[in-house]
């Protein structure tokens, strides 16, 4: 990725067969939307602590490896799509992300507990299936209508509310949608 102006607000490089690391993105202090999905990017995830305005992040289907950096300072974050990478470690706390609506972390190598999402008032999607998550799972928020916990190593059966969420999204709950995308009907906007 070439040097970009620090005032850039949105960047979409989706479906371009790009490879390499993304450290050059660290200087984009006004970044609100980032879509690097369906490329061959690798290495660690970018340091998004310098992106306080970040709202939409889609880094799906790459080869990013390592841990997911803390997201609790990204108070405007609405979408967090990191599915289908090589990410490991635990899912960071999502506490205080009151604008968060869509989370897709499936098809990685994440371990540890499923974070508490009960206090996320706008969360609609929560896909964390096909990882190595352990422990028990808390109640989902009332706003959640699609998600999956399947293909993990959870110690306890989640509440009946999780069953109704997984059944309502059966086409995408325990695997990919018809086009291979676990978020087949989600949308994002860029500016």
Short description:
The protein has helices at 160-168, 170-173; strands spanning 10-12, 19-20, 33-35, 40-43, 56-58, 63-66, 79-81, 86-89, 102-104, 109-112, 125-127, 132-135, 146-148, 153-154.
* Biggest pleated-sheet summary: 7 strands, parallel
Radius of gyration: 16 Å
Low-confidence runs: 167-191
- Terminal Cα separation, in Å? 19 Å
Q: Mean of the pLDDT scores?
A: 85
Number of helices: 2
Question: What's the number of extended β-strand segments?
Answer: 14
| Share of β-strand residues | 15-25%
Order of strands in the sheet with most strands: 1-3-5-7-9-11-13
What structural class results from the helix and strand content? mainly beta
Please write the string of helix (H) and strand (E) elements.
EEEEEEEEEEEEEEHH
Percent helix range: under 10%
The shape is: globular
Which terms would index this structure?
191 residues; mainly beta; seven-stranded parallel sheet; 14 strands
Kindly describe this structure.
With 191 residues, the chain is mainly beta. Helices cover 7% and strands 24% of the residues. It has 2 helices and 14 strands; from the N terminus they run E-E-E-E-E-E-E-E-E-E-E-E-E-E-H-H. A 7-stranded parallel β-sheet has the order 1-3-5-7-9-11-13. A 7-stranded parallel β-sheet has the order 2-4-6-8-10-12-14, with no helix packed on it. The longest helix has 9 residues, at 160-168. It is globular. The two termini are 19 Å apart. Mean pLDDT is 85; it is low at 167-191.
């Amino acid at each position: 990725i070439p040097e970009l102006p620090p005032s850039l607000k949105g960047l979409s490089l989706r479906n371009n067969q790009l490879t390499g690391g993304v450290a050059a993105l660290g200087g984009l202090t006004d970044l609100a939307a980032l879509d690097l999905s369906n490329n061959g990017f690798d290495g660690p995830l970018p340091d998004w602590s310098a992106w306080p305005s970040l709202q939409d992040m889609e880094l799906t289907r790459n080869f990013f490896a390592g841990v997911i950096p803390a997201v609790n300072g990204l108070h405007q974050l609405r979408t967090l799509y990191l599915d289908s990478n090589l990410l490991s470690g635990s899912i960071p706390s999502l506490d205080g992300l009151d604008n968060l609506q869509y989370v897709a972390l499936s098809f990685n190598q994440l371990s540890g507990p499923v974070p508490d999402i009960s206090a996320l008032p706008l969360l609609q999607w929560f896909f964390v299936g096909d990882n190595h998550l352990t422990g028990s799972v808390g109640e989902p928020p009332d706003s959640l209508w699609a998600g999956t916990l399947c293909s993990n190593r959870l110690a306890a059966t989640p509440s009946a509310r999780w069953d109704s969420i997984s059944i309502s999204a059966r086409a995408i709950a325990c695997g990919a949608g018809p086009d291979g995308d676990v978020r087949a009907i989600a949308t994002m906007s860029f500016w």
